## 1
Amino acid sequence: MTEFARRVEQVSISGIREVFEAAGEDAINLGIGQPDFPTPAHARRGAIEAIESDLTDAYTSNKGTRSLREAISATYDREYGLEVDPEDVIATSGGSEALHLVLQAHVDPGQEVIFPDPGFVSYDALTKIADGTPKPVPLRDDLTLDPATVEEAITDDTAVFVVNSPANPTGAVQSEADMREFARIADEHDVLCLSDEVYERIVFEGDHRSPLEFAETDNVVVVSACSKTYSMTGWRLGWVVGSNRRIERMLRVHQYGQACASAPAQYAAEAALTGPQEPVEEMVAAFERRRDLVLDGLEDAGLEVPTPEGAFYVMPKVPDGWCEAVLERDVVVVPGDAFGANGAGYARLSYATGTEDLKEALERIDAATRAAQ
């Protein structure tokens, strides 16, 4: 009798989904990582015009259209002063597929993948699907990842370490000094640094920096996407950037598992990247205002809250029973241990929802917090 693969049996459905299913129909959802803004009009038009021009009926190149990869390349030049050859880019079906490609192409059975804990739920699951060994490491008190912690965790069996800034679930942003250290570690230990930069444009203080800027070898691979920056989660368009030799290996996984990213989504992404950026700036400004509102509300309720500098998440320390008490009042939050063992005692709240809903949710949270204390 055919049984199920061990690497799949050790992966469970996300704990985030369990929270959603326990919530009432009218609950205020602070659990989902999805901007509540519309996709910019010029990005939508890019897809519509491509469809009407009969550009989307056939496969594109496995790597994606040349024009999209040129737009991605130009973005790295504009934002970071980096020269990225369009041949060193693969357009993927969202950032999730990009993460999958990196790990599948670089991790042999049993090899270690170091990642932050608490951290994005996919890092652990995708490591197991690659038949690798997850190696979560704790964060600093401000919820950033300490390069020294990563370096201490590296062994001869380490294949990859993951950096995520701005981070999900914490909203933490790594400093330039940290990013320089991550690049040094990748270079000196000859270990791949997977830099997950899906939230790169959603930064409130300072600037996002990438270890790709500072690496002296090709040991940094970057994953990003249009999903959060341009409110295009449903379009499923991301990308991976790396040296040509690494891209060619990841392409072998991509071409058999996916063939190519959706053609309409590629044209929408090209338009998003090359068109007006004011919608992004307006969205980030709105997220910053919401962040401040949520921080004030949580602190007024008596919770300790590290200040997030990016993304659209906040991760307060919470007492036992707090998440259940909040859910009973029809506000969806995600228990911190859904993101790793070190997330216990925290909860993740997303403020990617409207201000009025946030105000109502904070009133309910205040009541729940007082009840849980």
Note: The radius of gyration is 20 Å.
## 2
Amino acid sequence: MTRRGILLFAALGIAWGIPYLFIKIAVGELQPEMVVLARSGLAAVLLLPVALLRREVLPVLRRWKPLLVYTALEIVIPWYFLSSAEQKLPSSTAGLLLAAVPLAGVGVAFLMGRPSRLSRLNWLGMAVGMLGVAALVGLDVGGSDLLAVGEMAFVVVGYAAGPAVLARYMSDLPGIGVVAVSLALTAVVYVPFVLLRGAWPTAWPSSEVIVSIVVLAVVCSALAFILMVALVGEIGPIKATAITYVNPAVAILAGVLVLREPVTVWTIVGFALVLSGSYLVTRRTALEVPPTAAA
């Protein structure tokens, strides 16, 4: 990997590893719907001018059917459930559970008619990864948070299915244009939800929450995607998928250092098993999809 590739990889690993921390802070005062609206709206304001300047909006809008499906699977549904789950789960646990996205990607590939020939090593990875998820859910999370774990399951499936839709139906479209329009659509969708559910804040949020929203929109969304495009161009989409194994480690460190979240033995065991399984299940398979912003 080139020096530029290493710098891009490190920057993206941080940008996609810290969202869980800032979501946890934001949902302390804001409802999940408001967090999604604020994050997607501000990110869209930043990225849409870039996409318009590059003339990437109209080509994306012409492919509106897969665009709507991608937006729902990648942003609209996962971002809500992730924010809702983090009202009950530690941010580090949420980040760890999302390390199972590559495992779900195998199932998505089969459902979309793109089955891979899985080797014994891949099947071993499936077993190891699921064992890691079981360790996190049953021994680290505990039964009181099973609803939040169910919400995280929607996030995992969405983050696995979104890139699959993108790769199959929109791989020829400009990436920044796709994300900019998707973020704008998400903001439009959430406006009525926020109003109908009374999620608009009645008081001005604290400075910590405002900073969290800004970081989520600017760093974890707009800047992160630009970094991803640059990283894929520098080292290729296959090597770039290794970012999936860095994000959970960053999420754990951020949760421990900033929020003083506990790290149990089962956190470490689950972390090792899930990441090992994700690595084995994606090794030498046809699941060569671009990495996704798993937060």
Note: The radius of gyration is 18 Å.
## 3
Amino acid sequence: MANLFLNNSMSIYEIDSLARKYCSEKQWGMGIFIAVFDPSINDVLLVKTGQYAMDADGGTPWNLPGGGVEPGELPSHAALRELKEETGLSSPSGLRFAAWLERPYFRSRWGTTGELVILFCGVDRTNGSGLRPAPPEIVQCGFYHFNLHEWLNVPSKGNDNHPLSPLPRHWVYWTLIAQMMLKDPKMFPVIHEYSSSEDMALPLEGLNYGWGLNYKF
């Protein structure tokens, strides 16, 4: 991973500019996701994907709203666009940059290698006004109480009785990062490089530091 000078005082515009320059130089693709919490910072907005995303065990995963950044689009604008398209919500307050996540091994459907994922977070203060799924891509959406240990026990593939099944592990860790960022304005963003897709099921090293908010798994 390249040396990155990222801190919690950088503006969204600065993050947007740095991410675009970084991906242009490396010829990587870019994905964005956004964790939107209720004002208590305890309930987070999740979406359930449609049949196009079915895993090998027949489950259609839950995840945070998000997707790819279109050519010429700013990452933060892409996050808000995807949020609106997938859930009907718009303009969360206190939009923050939460994590810079690299996947050098990733291969896109177009054959390009490498991807940068930017995670944003914010707070919905509209009481979910206008919330709705967007089938067939998104078949369900809603705010769910984030309980780290409960979510880590939700199956990551297939179907189960738990209402959030399946829930791939990296969504749990990314939600945790976003919650930590919103609860502690002094926390630094998490920077992490995944070595493989299997590595995404493991806790990030970045969750073990930062202004007294430490989690052990």
Note: The chain has four helices and eight strands.
## 4
Amino acid sequence: MLDKDQIAAASRVLVRHWRDGAKLDTLETRLRPQSRAEGYAIQAALETQSLGQLFGWKIAATSVSGQKHINVTGPLAGRILSDTVIADGGTASMKGNAMRVGEPEFAFRMGRDLPPRAAPYAIEEVLAAVDSFHPAIEIPDSRFADFVSAGEAQLIADNACAHLFVLGSATTANWRTIDLVEERPQITLRGERYTGHGKNVLGDPRAALAWLANELSGLGITLRTGQVVTTGTCHPPLPIAAGDHLAVDFGVLGTASVGFE
């Protein structure tokens, strides 16, 4: 079991690589997490070293394609920090980005706290705590050179491959009456069009949101009012390069876009 000094040291290594845009092969043995719990402990320490504040949460690997992309068997939670958020329609730097993919996502902003508790939160309870729905784009990356073989615990420590994030405006449509499972957002990249599907997000983006609330509850963490949760890609990760422009159109639910340099 890692002690608090080892956890702090592991987080410092990851933060240093994040800030330098550098990669590492693996955390040294004495700092390497061996469980999800140890991975999350290191991730929590990352937040204390960030230049930004906690903006919200991401879920990695909510789709089969996402799980294959980073070689894990299920979802991972990560922190979105305010200094990694790019304005809708803005430009994202490709510097140091090895994954080089963009992911169109369903995102929710919370309207009230969901504190830790013994009983799991039902989907309906979590949805009742949501304030607004947003189209979003995530631009993930890893501090590990070979993120495919890094393993679940190290990827959790690596903030579940969080890197950059774009949040579209809150929809003015009544998203609660729409079947998000069958939503098929249209994605445009390099003149090509792609179609996402809500069911790719853990079967239902609302179920993914509830998963995140319960994952945090199990860690003793409150999902707080105002925090954003982005629920994972609704389309297989799309390769991106400098000069590209990625746009996602959710129809009546709104749009989000980002360029790359």
Note: The longest strand covers residues 101-110.
